[in-house]
Amino acid sequence: MDQSLKTREEGGPIQFEKLAREHLGRIRRIARRYADAGAVDDLVQDILVRLWRSLPSFRGEAKIETWVYRVALNAAMTSVKDSVRARELRASLTEKSGPPQSAPPGSSAADVLTSFMAELGQIDASILMMYLDGLTAAEMSSVLGISDNAINVRINRLKQKFSETYID
Amino acid sequence: MTLDDLKAPWMAEVLAADRAPSLDDVRAEIARVRRDTRMRDTWLILPLVAVAGLAAFFNWWARDAVSLQSRVGVLSIVVLAVVVTFVLLNARRAIAPDEWTLRARLEREIERLSKQVSLLLNVGYWLLLPMFLVIVISSGMGQYERTGSYLPGAMGWKLLGAYVVIAVLAYWLCRREVTRRYAPLLDRLKELHSDLVGREGRRG
Q: Count of CB atoms within 10 A of residue B200's CB?
């Protein structure tokens, strides 16, 4: 799946479209976690543009998923385009509605996933996404820039938090 | 249920082709980014061209100026233009690449925003006050050449007063921009960085 990108000189635009199609689901899911409902499409587009922009620097040494996560999380978390007013509004709405509710007993795994993801902070949510996607601690470390050990500690905490909330 | 049981629904969501990729929109956005990059580069060059033009103009204008006072006035304008251009270009350095690690990118963004905040908060020191001094010096020198006195006439006092009003307004606008836009963004990025590095960062 990833081999075509290693020889990017053979033709940029077609390869980028292939990349976009293959990873759109992943990108959209990341965007859904970090953007408001009405802004998901904008964030997806922003991530795709950044992927296109940084494609020439991708040397194919890392797994493509790792690179996609790096670019997508950077876009989602460090973009300064988001207006302060929008963020203030979002924060006040969160305060009014209180913390996210845990999925009730008997919920589907998809509901539990959505609910648990909403309970987490931005960094922990990113680690959870990469963990569920099968990235190793070393790969997550290369995305976030913190040590493997710190990643493992946070994954264990996530597992503990999950079992405390959703234990059978 | 364990955390690993969420892998299946996650992969189902990741692989679900809920919507065809809107690549036409992306292509349009890419074209817009290219245009913006060209425009940004143009705007980056403009201040340099303006300063060079200004220096050349005043050099020509002062070619017959025999007095030291005139030359000091001209020199102060050119020096201010060069310094201001340097400060502005330095603050507009490109943002970190998208493929950096999140930590590196956050640190670069925090550094960049901190510089911009500092630039705006200190606008009085690097722009408004030097500009005031340059106006006073150059107009005083001109006034001396014409009348033999450094003190400005009635119109000169009015112009200086107008400058002070504009400078105060500019200073207030800069502080407002920091409070409303940059400081909240900076706080958000610092909070995120702190959450990311946690104890590891504090040890380092």
A: 14
Of A41, A58, A84, which one is at a domain's C-terminal end? A84
Q: Which of residues 69-128 of B touch A (CB under 8 A)?
A: 97-106, 109, 113
Q: Please compute the mean of the pLDDT values over residues A142-163 and round it to a whole number.
A: 93
Look up residue B68 and give its two tokens. Answer: 């030291």
Confirm if A115 and A100 have CB atoms less than 8 A apart: yes
pTM of this structure: 0.74
Q: Is B102 within 8 Å of A126 when comparing Cβ atoms?
A: yes
Phi first, then psi, for residue A133 (nearest 5°) are -80, -5
Whether residue A123 and residue B189 make contact (CB cut-off 8 A), yes or no, is: no
CA dihedral A132, A138, A141, A142 (to 10 degrees): -110
| Residue ranges covered by each domain of chain B | 29-196
Considering the domain architecture, whether residues A80 and A4 belong to the same structural domain is answered as yes
B83 to chain A, minimum CA–CA distance in Å? Answer: 28
Partner residue opposite B30 with nearest CB, options A49, A131, A143? A49
Are the beta carbons of B58 and B74 closer than 8 angstroms?
yes
Instruction: Judge whether residue B55 has pLDDT over 70.
Output: no
Nearest CA in chain A to B179: A84
Cβ distance of B14 and A48 shorter than 8 Å: no
Same-domain pairing of A72 and A131: no
- At A104, which helix (H) or strand (E)? none
Residue A93 lies in a domain: no
Angle ∠(B123,B125,B129) on CA atoms, nearest 5 = 100
A90 within a domain of the structure (yes/no): no
Tell whether B14 lies on the interface with A, counting CB pairs under 8 A.
yes
A142 and A103 within one domain: yes
Assess: ipTM above 0.85: no
Distance CA A69, CA B98 (A): 11
In chain A, the residue whose alpha carbon lies closest to the alpha carbon of B2 is: A163
pLDDT digits (tens, 9 = 90+) for A84-93: 445 555 555 5
